[in-house]
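Chapter summary example.
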Amino acid sequence: MKRYAVILAAGQGTRMKSKLYKVLHPVCGKPMVQHVVDQVLQLGLEKLITVVGFGAEQVKAQIGTKSEFALQEEQLGTAHAVMQAASYLQDKDGVTLVVCGDTPLITAETMESLLEHHLATNAKATILTAIAENPAGYGRIVRNEEGHVEKIVEHKDATELEREINEINTGTYCFDNRSLFEALTNVSNNNVQGEYYLTDVIEILKAKGAVVSAYQASSFNETIGVNDRIALMQAEKIMRDRINRYHMTNGVTIIAPEHTYISPEAKIGRDTIIYPGTIIEGATVIGEDCVIGPHSEINNCVVGDNTTIRHSVAHDSEIGNHVTIGPFAHIRPSSQIGDDVRIGNFVEIKKSRFGKGSKASHLSYIGDAQVGEDVNLGCGSITVNYDGKNKYLTKIEDGAFIGCNANLIAPVTVGKGAYVAAGSTITNDVPDNALSIARARQVNKENYVERLNVKKKS
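The structure predicted for these 458 residues follows.
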């Protein structure tokens, strides 16, 4: 049976009180709609249609080629939104999943179970339901003796007995595709809001004698729709807990999960320890036996095994094995840190290659540089890479020793095994195994201070 899906992502989300369109608000660093898309795409679909409206171009830019798009120019209800996908789907045989773009916690496993239940019950429509501790405000699922859906009754229309039902409609559905689009043509907007509701499709199908089934999600949390900042906070908390539990189950120690923030795409090896205050973002990959944190931020990096990063920031870079970074270091984008490297406190590396076994232990800026193996950069070493208009490359070859407070004025090369004396400003290349001294000769003026003091008194 062919599968299709429609994601409803057209709403502005006025209750968010934000310039950012609702479905683009991030949960654990990823926009809500992207969470939904990534889960839905695991279902083996023939076609995915995302219905966009407010912020259409931004939503399209976020999802990219993973989906086709239908535009809902006027937001006239959920049934009206699904109708916008008619040109893609209405004549096709198969099963169509309809899911909202503001349900970032829904999983592929639950949607797969929904689809399987739909087929097993020969239903024309299947509703994803959940058990809510406090169902107030939700539509209740009224079942018949066979367990099929008798009706969905909104809270305001429910009797006292019906309000005691705690199985609620989550807003995610599975339909026989042809039956869905046939029923949509009969949906009316004869209601207070003047909108076309997808729940009316259920009543239309029931009137035709079709089987309408329901599949109950294992967790209410998975079905939460985010409509305001409070719900966004709740979704963030649930997602963070889910991600952290996944990593702990797979052998990662997280000292304080409530103070650790890990992206859904991150991969972390066994026996790595994550200390509190750590933020791991993007598609970061961290190896085994690492120590990360406390209070470190790692974004889109690849980190090898047995590496320690403390109180530091690293973005869009590669970091090798047995590396020590921090405290208070900054690895800026496009840096490559080799194995057995030491990057110490208040050291900034930018767009540089740092070779195996090299060290910059404190208070240095290394930008636009190629640093060889076993290089020592003394305290206060600076690659002066920018002349106000252009940036230039500094090369420091294997085994070189750069003394404290040395300025290397790029473009410049320090050869293999060369020494640069402390306090030097190097403007010319240094040959292999040479000592380069570029500073004024020291002059001591005897009794100068006494003469100066006499002059001041007079």
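To summarize the output: The two ends are 103 Å apart (CA to CA).
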